[in-house]
Design a protein that fits this description.
2 strands, two-stranded antiparallel ribbon, single chain, mainly alpha, 176 residues
Length: 176
């Protein structure tokens, strides 16, 4: 049997409590409703939900918005890059090499999952994996270039260099 591509790679469902709160909000908003509740003595109660007509309309609205409009998201990595100058280039290079190795492992796993997917599946069923793979490949390539620049000295900084730049770019206080 072919491997199933898991949606948790693109949707954060890691915290069960958050999922239950989301279900409560969707239900309170009239976007989902309870279809049935099942009880088996061996298992906890199971509730099956279904999407309402209003839920379908709102989902379509959300989906169109998410597909059409780039959203300003604030991932941790660019924030870390903007503070990287707090370390020395010699400290940063091995840290970024560890990230590059992890990205390579993630890429290899995603490639494996895609290769193991059922043959003949329509492309649309794996489109998010295709996107994730493209992003991983791009970040990995960019990261390797930065690491190379750190190693050959074409990307460098020091506290003295940064202080001199700050001093040179400060407005002349005597001119006021």
């Amino acid at each position: 049997m072919a491997a199933v591509i898991a949606k948790e790679q693109v949707v954060n469902v890691g915290q069960r409590a958050g999922l239950y709160r989301t279900i409560e909000r969707l239900q309170a908003g009239g976007l989902i409703t309870v279809r049935q509740t099942e009880r088996d003595q061996q298992y906890p109660e199971r509730t099956v939900y279904e999407v309402t007509d209003e839920g379908r309309a709102v989902t379509r609205e959300w989906l169109e918005q998410m597909l059409a409009v780039p959203k300003a998201e604030f991932p941790v990595f660019p924030a870390a890059l903007s503070n990287m100058l707090l370390l020395s280039p010699d400290e940063v290079a091995p840290i970024l090499e560890r990230r590059a190795a992890r990205l390579a492992a993630q890429r290899a796993e995603l490639e494996r999952q895609s290769a193991d997917a059922a043959t003949g599946l329509p492309r649309i069923t794996l489109i998010e994996n295709e996107y994730l793979l493209a992003v991983l490949v791009a970040e990995e390539g960019w990261l390797r270039g930065v690491i190379s620049d750190l190693r050959d000295g074409s990307l460098t900084w020091s506290p003295e260099m940064l202080a001199a730049f700050q001093e040179a770019s400060a407005p002349d206080s005597a001119a006021t």
